[in-house]
Amino acid sequence: MRRPDTIEHMYLDFDGFFASVEQQIDSRLRGRPVGVIPYVGGTRAILIACSREAKARGVKNIMPVDEAKSICPDLILVPQKPEMYRRAHNALVAEIHAVIPIDTVKSIDELACRLGADDIADPYTLAQRIKRAIRYGIGASITCSMGFAANRHLAKIACAVGKPDGCTVWRPQDMPGPLIRIPLEDVPGVGRRMAQRLAIAGVETTEGLLRLAPKEARALWRNVSGERLWYALHGYAIEAPPSQRGMFGHMRVLPPEGRTLPAARDIARLLAVKAARRMRREGYTSSLLMLHASLKDGWWGRERVMRQVQDDAAVLQSLLLLWSELQTTAGKSRQIFRVGVTLGALTPAGERQLDLLDDDDDDRQRWERLGRAIDGANAKFGRTLVSVGPWDPPKGGNVGGKISFTRIPSAEDFA
């Protein structure tokens, strides 16, 4: 396995992305502590993101709004605008791509680049060129941090060291000194549960993790991921295997007025249709529908096996059957705070195997032809004009267009 003797990768992370985009769009928010919330009036919700000014006051992402306001009373709350963040992401990617080719867009606010010879020789000049392109091409409110290292994993860790608005270069000859100072829980790939498992094995620091043998790391992770992480942390040129699509799903936190069973059912229905649309666009069928909900005193989840389907009618039929189970469990007086719908057990549409005992092929094909016609009409006009059943999105929209950091919605997700 190759071990580079110089830096080869850059990792870039936008600082407080959602909040900084809000500040760039609205000059009244600049220089002030800003927190992004899921919906209008979400004073009892969780902060999706916060600005660097808010973080300097002790506010953190995924913090309850009431706690954040107790820490920072003048925190300005703004509801999320996923479509605006998507457009900002695309504009920023275009600006950066004009400076250096982008190897991988990792999420809505993170990307990675392979370095050319000139950039390897002078990474700080490259960083200045990118920051200048963002400042004058997009605006000064949106900043980014960058990390340079022998591989992408180390570059990602180095990037986090310099936040906000920093630039950190970890050359192979300097390692592992800077890495040893990183807390173990800040190493990507070491989650809370994994950290507990490592602690039981006597590994409580990043230095301790580095001292393991590759096979020991594999045994602790109970799969090849531990060994891959070991090689990445030791500076080897190791690339993550290509990811495969496993599911299509959407989740939504419900506003206070939408927490009744009928209102939550309507949202779940919209989420299911949105997921089915995405699945069709990417050419898959699904054999499993999962419905989950956060109730006042717990979590509820069920799944239903389907035939290999992709049309709205089949998905909605399964959803309504699951919803009847939820309604029986929850009762009429129970509140639902969050609802999610996921389509799993995916198969490429061209590889679908129909059951010879199920004489439903004609019916399925008829619904699929209707689905393609509906998708075509909605795509043509850029919004939902035709749907199977009612289509009444809640105030604030964003149903199916929410950004989860790991997924960047397309324009069609907001139709």
TrEMBL record:
Assembly notes: Monomer.
Organism: Sandaracinobacter neustonicus
Source organism, top-level taxon: Bacteria
Enzyme class: transferase
Record-listed E.C. numbers: 2.7.7.7
Recorded family membership: Belongs to the DNA polymerase type-Y family.
Name of the protein this chain belongs to: DNA-directed DNA polymerase
UniProt-recorded Gene Ontology molecular function terms: damaged DNA binding; DNA-directed DNA polymerase activity
